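Input for the complex:
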Amino acid sequence: MMLKRLFKAAALAASVYAALAPTSHADDYPSKTVTVIVPFAAGGNTDAFGRLVAEQLDKRLGQRFIVENKPGAGGNVGLGDLARAAPDGYTIGMGTVSSNAINQTLFKSLPYDKEKGFAPLSLIAILPNVLVVNSEKLPVNSVEELIELLKKEPGKHTYASSGVGTSIHLAGELLATKAGVKITHVPYKGSSQAIMDVVAGHIDFMFDNIPTAAQQVKAGKLRALAVTSLDKASLLPDVPTMDSVIPGFEATSWHGIFAPAGTPPEILEKLSKEVQAILHEPEMKAKIEGMGATPVGNTSEEFASFIKDETAKWAEVIKAANIPLQ
Amino acid sequence: MDIFSDLWLGATTAFQPINLAYGFVGCLLGTAIGVLPGLGPTATIAMLLPITFGLQPESALIMLAGIFYGAQYGGSTTAILINLPGESSSVVTAIDGYQMARKGRAGPALATAALGSFFAGTVATVLLAVAAPPLAAVALEFGPAEYFSLMILGLVASVALASGSLSKAFAMIVFGLLLGSIGTDVESGTPRYVFDVPQLYDGLNFVAVSMGIFGICEILRNLEHEQERSVGVKKVTGLMLNRDDFRRIRGPVLRGTALGSLLGVLPGGGAMLASFAAYAMEKRVSPNRAEFGKGAIEGVAAPEAANNAGAQTSFIPMLTLGIPGNPVMALMVGAMILQGITPGPNVISDEPALFWGMIVSMWSGNLMLVILNLPLIGLWVRMLTIPYHLLFPAIIGFCCIGAYSINNSVFDVFIMAGFSVIGFALSKLRFEPAPLLLGFILGPMLEENLRRAMLISQGDPTVFVRSPLSLALLVAAMIVLALVLAPSISRKRDEAFTE
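Predicted:
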């Protein structure tokens, strides 16, 4: 009897509490620490963008935004954690062209529901890749000359990448398909060892993220032929775009911020607006441009349709290049 | 050209009170995290990155560099005292260092590690100041074919790491190679032995494996024979080195420094090989060969000198070419980029105060470390007198935190636990773990470079003998192999080492 009454009281208390408890309204969000998952190692580009934005969100929203690095399996480990987190706005995460547009095709199975996916908040920055050649090994001054040489000597020339299925590798495959040339892909674990072997002349050419490659170009160790963004890059203003030689050639490394699917729309909107505002601050813009990237800060809808286009584009390249699925 | 004015510029930067202070903080932190098992410089630097935003670039990098080489000093402490190498470089220090500690000579072992590291650090810093650009050019000569041959030499030399049966050492190397093949195949992107576990796609984590197989396994073994252990600890004799010790470590420190400085320049595993190679070489040339594996002071001096020299010279590719050779250097590059400095070949001319300031700070940092560490030896040795039933839960606790902090992943903690059981089984069967770990480290690099070299040469295997450097390394490997297999030597070896 006693027990039954106790149960009743508890049930009543619970329902009253449920009615009074703050449902996830955007007004009081965030009321505690927010975790920002970065699915790559600390010190890389994604980590840097994530930390820059988290620091500003921290200041604007008055709660701690803590970056947590969860590297592994090309970003899949961290995104798996993000997908499993409660969709309440207290766990958000970074994603990139690899983790959110390429892995969808490249991996046979992902540690999260591919269909459900994630709720995109905003695209933070686009980092162009640059096509660099070892000027002593390849006597070419332009993309046209490079293509001509590659056509004359099919299969004889090598290009390095930071790993199978990275945006750097797929840029090479895009060149092979669009220009109709045969080149040998030599993958590395990460781009630093790869660019070193291009500088040393063991490998002929490579597409690389712009900040590190630009330094080698400025020091005269490598020759930059073209950048892979549609606009010219601020770090290498004299270098033409791939698009001007092969129309439609775009292969950039982009970095955005996501929430787990099912996060309340008011919270998504609030976060997205804040990130957009952060990326339109002149100081932030200057910082990102200083890293060689283009700051974006678009709306959730714009970001979602951008991802859709990118996913379709890379699926096609992966199919055309016959890259085995992982 | 004018080295003295450059060094003067460096000194005026490094000896600014603020930079000295940050250097000291870095060294102190580095020593602390080096001593705590598993908490490595990579995790610490990653955590401190955001704090460095607000600092001057010089102060930030001096502090981060201090953490890195401070950890090299601290890492040997746990390896010697409790057989727990927190870093790949201190794995070999544990072999003889721990045996010295069990004989009550923990003090001299720690002093050897500190003094050997200081000497090596000083020499390597001078080398960095006078010869960074030419050494970087040597590093560029190493392409995939040369790396492959270097790894072969390393693998062959690793047989010398074992002090027991030769066939068991081979078996352990092969087991290590197999463990190393877990993860995504770099060339095709195909996952191997991952069983759809995403955490295995990047392979097993070295720190988790080595903490399990050495540290936790040692705890299991000690709990089995707790009586023996407490007896061994009571007779701690003398904290400093005696004259005989000094005489014995002179040669090993010099050779270790030379080998470490050279290998450290090579990005992608060179520095990791340094301590293994130095130990293997000492075991061949030392007059006290028979003592190796049983607490030879040379077996502590040589690898400690080599790993500190290697840690110092591994800055060369990063500072002169802008190319990071290991994860810690990659973080330093990240820190520089966030400070608005893109590391590259122009850093020396564009940011001379930063470049020379860092070099001078490395020497002052090494001096601070030796001053900091020598008095601490007494304290560390007294730690051994803590009752084991209090000490071991603390060690296990720190190991778990350390394993988790590598990738913020619980999975790595399970890996560590699994390997402690494997390590225990191996030690019962009298298999030694050091060759296993070397196979595990070298295996993936060996395979990647072999396949990469073959891709570049379009399937022509003569590439390995066409390059003079690669040919020389292969010949050296063959000589070492012949020495190991030569019946007379191997008979002597068996007499000396098997029980």
